Amino acid sequence: MVIERKWKTWIFFYIPLTVFVIGTLFPFYWMLITAIRPDAELYRSWRAATNTPFWTLQPTLEHFRDLMAKTTFPRWLWNTFFIAVASTVISLFCGLLAGYALARLRFPMAGTLGTSIFVTYLVPPTLLFIPLADIIRSFQLGNTPWALILTYPTFLIPFCTWLLMGYFKTIPKELEECARIDGATRFGAMTRIIFPIAVPGILSAGIFAFTLSWNEFIYALVFLSSPERKTVPVGVVSELIRGDIYFWGQLMAGALLGSIPVALVYSFFVEYYVTGLTGSVKG
Amino acid sequence: MKKPIAGGAGSAAGLEVALPHPRTSQPAPTLTRFLENEGLLAAVLLTPTVLLLGLFIAYPFVMGVWLSLSSTSVGNPGEFVGLHNFVKAWNDGIFRTAFGNTFFYTFWATIFKLTLGMWLALLLNRSFRGKRLVRASMLLPFIVPTVLSTFAWRWMFDPTFSVLNWLLYQGGLITTKLPFLSDGTYGLWCAIVVNTWRGMPFFAITLLAGLQTISPDLHEAASLDGANGWHRFWHVTWPLLKPVTLVVVVFSVIQTFSDFQLIYVLTGGGPANATHLLATYAYQIGVATGLLGEGAAISLFMLPVLFIVVWIQLRYLRRLEGA
After folding, report:
1. How many whole angstroms separate alpha carbon B298 and alpha carbon B98?
2. Residue B24 to residue B26: CA distance in whole angstroms
């Protein structure tokens, strides 16, 4: 261990770290405080003597109540959840099979396929959304959840494949060979020996994929049009602002409630998420 | 006594007595035998992936190129117009601004994310009380939906009720409100700040994973040789961290360069179209106005940069595999 003086530790460690923590978390605190602040207090002149921006003396749940009762927000939550789960399941299924094939099987074009799947991983949705909207329309999928359930896998599968391929490569080949000597088929060895061992990798990929699809915006914005079909990010942007008026209390309540599900999933599986995150980059 | 491991030894014994093998004793289903072929199994396993990616990535891509060369708009199939859309975009003042903004935004946001992320990673690499909690909460900006957290920022930058203005005013740093989002230059810098806030945790956590693979012995040896903190970082940590850094920067550049949601929510491209990026301008022309051909051409302007970045990444991967 490298030994440091005490004042140095404060200057080079505690103070910067505190600044980082405050800077990172302040917007979330601000979301919360805005969401529970009554309107009268929200829109008060910033030079008013009674202005207490960092806390409120009359916390209220009014904005949450309005959001749940007077808007289609609960519906958006359900839509987002359903779409995120469905596209995650599809992507995990495809990613598992493809990742196994690329990690374990020898076949012509393996290298080319692996590279092209990796390249699709790097294609951003903003490059494709205009032609894709046209395709979705011609498949009669416009304004249905399927438009998103089928297109989200385009950025989830490459990532899942990449992550799981890396994971499969760490599993010793001998395990499968033993199983095959015992009479298991190739397919059986894959599903009954390798996939169960890969559960941590599958969990990482699944959690990461779930948060990615929960957060997706541009496809949902372009492909969905009726208010009751929207996902949380799109609904908050397009339905909670009426005309030019921003109802900040309600908006922040929506932002908070829309963030909680991913934050919960994340907090239960931090380690898996971090593995997914770092693994998705390094492969 | 039974052998503790049933796998290897047991099966070898089983083979000796139980011949013929179960697979030959019962007539195996054709499908099973079919899947024993490595190439065929691979084809089956890869079909869903190739189908989905082909249908929703490769096909739209080809279609996008076609659209960009046509005069298609909503309700009008259009005809081939050659490079007209590209030329038109290039001569368009707003497009030029968006084009420049995209580079400006990507450049500065990446620089900030890299320096701050590296700094945070170095801080988190030490042991202290509550480290797990701090590390977990640091990732929050990255996992929370960008659109929603950007709304919080937009509210913090509000022209009349900005808490940041209030803070600066109370701190005696300003006497009049700063025009955060009502001025083009300020607006773009605000977007860079929000992007940095959102993307920095990704850098920090990934670089931290890289830092944790560096043996503390190296630092100890260096400090015995009289190296101070900065020297240890520059001569020990940085060279070992360079590969991870390159990969993270590539990912981040792609995402920042093609960013859409942050600007869409924060400024909507305004005031007076001063803060558009390529993606938001493509949306405005292609979806909001309905000129699909022109919109597709604008988003294709991203392609050369993405191509270069991906090429660097692939070359780097090859080198890793070769080594």
Report:
1. 10
2. 6
B271 domain residue, yes or no: yes
Tally the domains of chain B: 1
Any idea what the CATH number is for the domain that residue B210 is in?
A: 1.10.3720.10
Residue ranges making up the domain that contains B180: 94-322
ipTM score for this prediction: 0.90
Cβ within 8 Å of A, B 43-82 = 43, 45-46, 48-50, 52-53, 56-57, 59-61, 63-64, 66-67
Q: What percent of chain B has pLDDT over 70?
A: 90
**How is B82-141 classified by DSSP, letter by letter?**
TTHHHHHHHT-HHHHHHHHHHHHHHHHHHHHHHHHHHHHHHHHTS--TTHHHHHHHHTHH
Task: List the structure tokens of A10.
Answer: 């404060």
Superfamily of domain A64-282 in CATH is MetI-like (1.10.3720.10)
Instruction: Give the residue-averaged pLDDT of B60-89.
Output: 90
Domain boundaries, chain A: 1-35, 64-282
Q: How confident is the model at residue B128 (pLDDT cuts 50, 70, 90)?
A: confident
Give the A window 242-271 contacts with B, CB below 8 Å: 246, 248, 251-252, 254-255, 258-259, 262-263, 266-267, 270
Domain contains B120: yes
**Which tokens hold the place of A253?**
């309540």
Q: Cα–Cα distance between B141 and B143 in angstroms, integer?
A: 6
pLDDT tens for each residue of B236-277 = 888 888 888 888 898 899 999 999 999 999 998 878 899 999
